[in-house]
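Quick board copy: two proteins, each given as sequence then tokens.
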Amino acid sequence: MARSKQSLKRLRTDAVKNERNHRKLKRLRTAIKKVNSAETPEERKEAVKLAQSLIDKAGRTRLMHPNKAKRLKSRVL
């Protein structure tokens, strides 16, 4: 790979974006698991609300494809 200033900066920024995206996806997957493991209807309602919010945000910011976000959201219900 070229060792220009631009390519070195791209490597740094890509690493930061990659870490941020992994954290967001991990939080999303955890929220979906909490929906599936909720014991009471109240817990499930709160978990669904959080999961749908995170799914919407992921689709809007292109963290995942918008159609995949819509599909996940409909399955969480």
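And the next:
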Amino acid sequence: MSITIYHVSGTRSMRVIWLCYELDIPCKVDTIDFAKKFRASPGWRAKSPTGKVPAMDDGALTMFESGAMVQYLLDRYGQGQLQPESGTPAGALYLQWCWFAEATFARPLGDIAQHTLVREEKDRIQAVVADGQQRSRTCLEAIEAAVQDSHYLLERFTAADIMMGYSLMLAEKFGLITEDLPATEAYFARLKDRQGYQYAVSV
């Protein structure tokens, strides 16, 4: 096993680092210079065709999608930990929340980020931010219902919570986790209390 995670603080690479910590998978974290010139370089594009992070090497294998990395590491090294059995109702809900975290929830959060942080002031559209906030609220209400009577998205902590943790980190950054979402506040507090989360956001 020779795993290298190419990382930029505050990005989706924290999911992969967090998972490795939880599973005690040895890995090297390579914090890269994420300047525009580097992102466009042929060497980096060979690892990540879109120029984004994370990327991950495991021996001769290179991957560039955080959710796929999480699932690959679980399947290859997890020994049944942090995911329910595939093909079961619990396994179906696990996949649902993993995909929800990225495909449904992270999308409006990304729109907010683009039009408040990433783009130049002249290119920012407030209507996009407002729409992103509304769609994010709908997602947060779904999470609120899911964790109303549960410590985690499923009956126990799984990698779905790791996937969701990054999205909630962004939501908190944008002030979207409000007092009228008490179960979500408590849920995210539990995630932040985990040593794996704390390590992933510290590197």
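Board note added afterward: The CA atoms of residues 115 and 126 lie 7 Å apart.
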